[in-house]
Amino acid sequence: MTHGLEQSFSSQDIFARRIVNELDASLEDVPHHVSERLRAARVRALTLRKQKAPVPVYSASIHIQNGVATLGAGPGTGQLWEKMVSFLPLLVLLLGLMFIYEHQNDFRARELADVDQALLLDDLPPDAYTDPGFLKFLSVPRESIEGPQ
Amino acid sequence: MATEKELSDFLKSVEKRAFKRSVYHVRDEEAALDIVQDSMMKLAEHYADKPANELPMLFQRILSNTTLDWFRRQKTKNALFSNFNDFESESGSDEMDFLDIKVPEHDTMMGESAEQNFSHTQNVLEIEEEIKKLPARQREAFLLRYWEELDVSETASAMGCSEGSVKTHCSRAIQALHLALSAKGLKP
Q: Cβ A42–B15 below 8 Å, yes or no?
């Protein structure tokens, strides 16, 4: 039974190969316009391959084109390096913002310190600024106090 | 990575078979040409960096998928996936002698007369017509397995089915062709 089955498969294979031999022969009879269209399709596909062919980059470098600078990676570093590089501008921006924030804080602290220093070193005691009479004195024009001379 | 020449030679070697296969599937010459062209471009665009020995399998998959896409676009998907039980084996069909059919060997075509040549062309047309009539999966399995000369596992991979299914499809396709060609008394 098994032998019969194998023989059947074998004869099936032979029959199938005779069929495809016929089909192979028919390929020679493909119309000219079809052959030309297939050739054109092949040429177009190969052109597409050239356009998509990767440009090898052999060392890390900076490429400047149309006013845009990008980093090129060396062989083997792959996309990981490119992804890391793409975060570089964001990192620079964050560091810049942190620097500006710290600088502004420092500037304000120094301003307040200068005011405090001026108050403490002045002949007038700081408590004088809490005295309503003194504030009234400051608001009155000096001519009216000293009188005409 | 396949060189440009390897890719070109490969495409040249498969383009006519791919066209014929597509015609068998879609039964429209223009559509078949579009499908083959799309397949070639997809292969060149996305897989040109693959080794040359991987191109045949990749191309067969792309061609199958592009053909399926065409059918989807045509909204005739149901026509593509027809019932696999179209060719239920009849009693005693396992014992058919497939070698009874006298499909001509090419060596005998040398020096044939115009009349014989015409007869040969007619036989090819009959064979092609019967191949077109096969259910899509049987036709695909038969052509991939025997015409593209993929082995069973490669055919299964290209078709996205099991090796057992490939064997079943091929066997049923051959039985169907045998019956149909016998009925037509094909004796080239």
A: yes
